[in-house]
C-alpha cells in the first residue's frame, strides 16, 4: 500500500491530537495556541474538532496519572520507550479511561497510529500495552497506582504543595486539583461601547457584567468576535480589568497604562472602559510577537493612545505619567492549568526565583510611573504565595510611598475570595469557576 494511503488510514482528529503532543514536547508549544492552527490545517470542525481538542488537552492534563498506569503495564522504564510511541500510548489511555470511545476502537486506532508513524513492531507493543490498560477502569487504576495526590490528580508533587499552601487549608485541595483537570468553558466578553452581552449567545457570567458562558459552537464565527467588538476571555481576567478600571483615584483620571499587555485581552477591555470615560490607554509589551497580538486585539478600538514595545522594568515613560497602571505580570501560570495543561509539567520550582524577581521589578516600575493619588493593580494568574503575597510584601517593605488598599471594595459581589494578605483577592477554579487570579490594589501616596 502506498505510504500516502497508509497515512490516510489514521483519522484526522487523532492525527491532530498526536501532532499537538509532539509540538508541546519538542517545540515547547502551548496547547491552546498550536491546537487551533492544526484544526484549521486539517479542516476539522464540529464534533471532530471537539474530539481532537479533548483528546489532546485531556491527555496532557492527565499525563502524570497515565504515566503511572503505563509504568504498571510496561516491563521497562518509560524513559526507554520511544517518545512518539509514548505519546500514542497516552492518547490511547485517555480514550480508554476518560472518553466514550469503545475499547476496540481506542486500541485499534492507536495501534494504527503507531504503525503508520513508527513501525509495525512498535504497533504490536502498543497493542499489548493498551490491552493491559483496558483491563481496569480509571477509578480502579487510580486506587492501584495513585497512592498520593500528585499521581491521583496528575499534578507534580511540588505544585500540589504550593497549591495547598496557597489555599491555607487541606479540605478543599482535592476539589481544586479536580477543577484543574476539568476542561474550561468558553467565556466571552462584550467590550462596552462596542458590544453588549445581550448580543452574545450564552448564560451571563456570575460576577462580570460583560461576560457570557458560551453554550457551544465556534466563538470565532460570531460577528462581534470577528469584528473585535467582543472576545474570548476568562471571567477572572475580566474581573482584573474591571478592578483596574474601577478603583478610585484622586484627581484627574485620563492616562491609563497596561504595563504587560500581551496578548491583549485585558488591554482590549481596559481600552473600552477608558473610552467610556474619555480616558486613554497605553498598551506596553516587551516581546515583539506579543506586541503584535496586542495590536490585533486592539484593532479599531477607541480609547487607545499608544501601543508600545518596551521592557516594563525599564519603561520609556516619565515618572508620575499615569493615573492608573495594570501590572498583569508574567508568572508560573499555575492558576490557569485548566486552559494551559502543559504548564504543570513545564514549570519547575527554580522558575519562582526568576519570576518573583521580575514581578517585584515590574510593580516597582509601575509605582514609579503612577502619580501620587493614582493606583497600581497587580495581578497574576497564579495563586502561589511567592508570586502573590510574597511580591506585595516585598514591595511594601521597600517603599514608604505606597499603601495596600482593599480590592474587595471594587469587586463587592465576588464572595469567598479573601487573598493571603488583608485587602487582596484570590479567585479559584473550584469556588468561582475562573482561573486562580490574584489581585492586589496599591495606591501611590
TrEMBL record:
- InterPro entries associated with the record: MeTrfase_RsmB-F_NOP2_cat, MeTrfase_RsmB-F_NOP2_dom, NusB-like_sf, NusB_RsmB_TIM44, RCMT, RsmB/NOL1/NOP2-like_CS, SAM-dependent_MTases_sf
Q: Where is the active site?
A: 381
Record flagged with keyword S-adenosyl-L-methionine: yes
Source domain of life is: Bacteria
**SUPFAM superfamilies per the UniProt record, alphabetical:** NusB-like, S-adenosyl-L-methionine-dependent methyltransferases
What keywords tag this UniProt record? Methyltransferase, RNA-binding, S-adenosyl-L-methionine, Transferase
**Gene3D superfamilies xrefs:** NusB-like (1.10.940.10), Vaccinia Virus protein VP39 (3.40.50.150)
Q: Where is the SAM-dependent MTase RsmB/NOP-type domain?
A: 159-445
Stated family = Belongs to the class I-like SAM-binding methyltransferase superfamily. RsmB/NOP family.
- What name does UniProt use for this protein? Transcription antitermination factor NusB
Say which species the protein is native to: Nocardioides conyzicola
Amino acid at each position: 500500500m502506498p505510504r500516502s494511503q497508509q497515512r490516510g488510514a489514521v483519522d484526522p482528529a487523532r492525527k491532530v491530537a498526536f501532532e499537538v503532543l509532539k509540538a508541546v514536547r519538542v517545540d515547547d508549544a502551548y496547547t491552546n495556541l498550536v491546537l487551533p492552527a492544526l484544526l484549521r490545517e486539517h479542516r476539522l470542525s464540529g464534533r471532530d474538532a471537539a474530539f481532537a481538542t479533548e483528546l489532546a488537552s485531556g491527555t496532557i492534563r492527565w499525563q502524570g496519572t497515565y504515566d503511572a498506569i503505563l509504568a504498571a503495564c510496561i516491563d521497562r522504564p518509560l524513559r526507554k520507550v520511544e517518545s512518539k510511541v509514548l505519546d500514542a500510548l497516552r492518547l490511547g489511555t485517555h480514550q480508554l479511561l476518560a472518553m466514550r470511545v469503545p475499547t476496540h476502537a481506542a486500541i485499534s486506532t492507536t495501534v494504527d497510529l503507531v504503525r503508520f508513524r513508527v513501525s509495525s513492531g512498535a504497533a504490536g507493543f502498543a497493542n499489548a500495552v493498551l490491552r493491559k490498560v483496558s483491563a481496569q477502569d480509571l477509578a480502579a487504576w487510580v486506587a492501584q497506582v495513585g497512592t498520593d495526590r500528585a499521581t491521583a490528580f496528575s499534578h507534580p508533587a511540588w505544585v500540589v504543595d504550593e497549591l495547598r499552601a496557597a489555599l491555607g487549608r487541606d479540605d478543599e485541595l482535592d476539589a481544586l486539583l479536580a477543577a484543574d483537570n476539568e476542561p474550561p468553558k468558553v467565556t466571552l466578553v462584550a467590550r462596552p461601547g462596542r458590544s453588549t452581552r445581550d448580543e452574545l449567545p450564552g448564560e451571563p457570567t456570575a460576577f462580570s457584567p460583560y461576560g457570557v458562558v458560551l453554550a457551544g459552537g465556534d466563538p470565532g464565527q460570531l460577528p462581534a468576535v470577528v469584528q473585535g467588538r467582543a472576545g474570548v476571555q476568562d471571567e477572572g481576567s475580566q474581573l482584573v480589568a474591571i478592578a483596574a478600571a474601577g478603583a478610585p483615584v484622586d484627581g484627574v483620571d485620563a492616562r491609563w497604562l497596561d504595563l504587560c499587555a500581551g496578548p491583549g485581552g485585558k488591554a482590549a477591555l481596559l481600552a473600552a472602559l477608558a473610552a467610556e470615560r474619555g480616558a486613554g490607554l497605553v498598551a506596553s509589551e516587551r516581546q515583539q510577537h506579543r506586541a503584535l497580538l496586542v495590536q490585533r486585539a486592539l484593532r479599531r478600538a477607541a480609547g487607545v493612545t499608544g501601543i508600545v514595545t518596551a521592557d516594563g522594568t525599564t519603561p520609556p515613560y516619565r515618572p508620575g505619567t499615569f493615573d492608573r497602571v495594570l501590572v498583569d505580570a508574567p508568572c508560573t501560570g499555575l492558576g490557569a492549568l485548566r486552559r494551559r495543561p502543559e504548564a504543570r509539567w513545564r514549570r519547575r520550582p527554580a522558575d519562582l526565583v526568576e519570576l518573583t524577581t521580575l514581578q517585584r521589578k515590574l510593580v516597582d516600575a509601575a509605582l514609579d510611573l503612577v502619580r501620587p493619588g493614582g493606583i497600581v493593580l497587580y495581578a497574576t494568574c497564579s495563586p502561589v504565595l511567592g508570586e502573590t503575597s510574597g511580591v506585595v510584601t516585598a514591595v511594601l517593605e521597600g517603599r514608604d510611598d505606597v499603601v495596600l488598599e482593599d480590592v474587595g471594595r471594587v469587586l463587592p459581589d465576588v464572595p469567598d475570595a479573601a487573598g493571603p494578605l488583608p485587602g487582596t483577592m484570590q479567585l479559584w477554579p473550584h469556588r468561582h469557576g475562573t482561573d486562580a487570579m490574584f489581585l492586589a490594589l496599591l495606591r501611590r501616596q
